[in-house]
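WARN retry 2 of 3 for item q-0093 after timeout on previous attempt; input resubmitted unchanged.
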Amino acid sequence: MSADVARFFSPGVIWSKLPKGETSDFLIANQLYNSFKEYLDLYLEILFESKEVNIELQKELINGQNNYLKYRRDNDPARPMLSSLFGKEFTESLIKEVLFTT
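OK item q-0093 returned
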């Protein structure tokens, strides 16, 4: 992934591009699902143990979320497909007013 995108993800992100077919089914069932489950369990554990953060950190977190939403709004990879299916005007409204609002 590019540095532009990588700044929004943890260094421990699970990233995969799978081939179509039975090989993918095997990888998902025997490797990726277990990794995902461990990640989700850890995420939930951290979430339930978390405490409220101070106002400065809240602002930093909100700013980071807004930066990510702006990046996705400007660079949504589904834009061409959605535009061909629903038209440019509807697609831009969907992206800017529903999917990635700030």
